[in-house]
Design goal:
It is built from two helices and no strands. The chain is mostly helical. It has one domain. Helix 1 packs across helix 2.
Length: 129
């Protein structure tokens, strides 16, 4: 065998080995792509399934929040109406008392006014010192 023939055989073997390595690498890349695509498809399906499960829960929470807000508004309106009625009842009772007892009403008003003025004066004197 000549050196040329041996060199050609070695070169052919090297080419064959390089082709085999290249083919193996391409197969590995294709397999990796395939596995990655399958994994992404599975993940996408899981996300869609989770979204389908979460949507009713989110809708339920939104409905409950809306119901709670509605009840709170109704409660606040009722409390406001009760307070208005109570203030009106006190105003009516006060008006009736003043109409029935005008002298006592004036004395009570004067006493409350004097007490308020005294408290204001005492508070302002304490601040001055």
């Amino acid at each position: 065998m000549t050196i040329q023939t041996a060199t050609n055989k070695v070169a052919a073997g090297a080419r064959s080995l390089a082709d085999d390595v290249l083919q193996s690498a391409q197969d590995a890349v294709q397999t990796t792509r395939s596995v990655a695509n399958d994994s992404l498809d599975k993940a996408e399906n899981k996300v869609r399934a989770l979204r389908r499960e979460a949507d009713p829960a989110i809708d339920d929470l939104a409905a409950r929040a809306q119901e709670l807000a509605s009840r709170s508004i109704d409660y606040a309106a009722d409390a406001s109406a009760r307070a208005r009625r109570q203030v009106q009842e006190v105003a009516d009772a006060t008006s009736k008392y003043v109409a029935e007892q005008p002298g006592k009403s004036i004395l009570i008003a004067a006493g409350v006014g004097a007490l308020t003025a005294s408290l204001i004066l005492m508070a302002s004197r304490r601040r001055a010192y």
